[in-house]
Amino acid sequence: MNKITMKPRRLASYFFIVGAFYEIILIVLWRLYQPYEIIGLLFTYNSVSIFIADTITQFIWPNYFAPPTSMILLFDVILVIAFATQCAVLGYIIQKFATKLRSKTVPEQLCLNDTSEKHIQ
Questions:
Q1: CA 117 to chain centre
Q2: How far is CA 14 from the centre of its chain?
């Protein structure tokens, strides 16, 4: 009996790539146009990534009143990596739940690719 099931083995990597792409788009839009809605998205829904990026940049360059350009670039890179890692962790959690749901048996009526003899006749 052949069953069509979801194979979520790469879900965490997909979440990582999509999260990094999303954060890069937000940062580029912020650096080019500086709309207030994007800064709200960055700080409201991304507070853990902001905290991680701020802590690491303050560790490397402590007590700068006017940050150099390299500090701003490092902050943006760490922000993208931290958010993408958060998305990957979320994808990994979803992947674990999906594999537990997949391990349950699918009823025979729901199998779309069943080629057993009783269905052919």
A1: 44
A2: 7
Helices (H), the chain: 11-33, 36-44, 47-60, 69-103, 117-120
Query: What's the pLDDT tens digit per position in 48-63?
Result: 999 999 999 999 888 7
**What is the SS3 assignment for 113?**
coil
23 and 82 Cβ atoms separated by less than 8 Å: no
46 contacts 81 by C-beta, under 8 angstroms: no
Instruction: Please provide the average confidence, as pLDDT, over all residues in the chain.
Output: 82
**In angstroms, how far is CA 50 from the centroid of its own chain?**
15
Residues in the chain: 121
Domain regions of the chain by residue span: 11-98
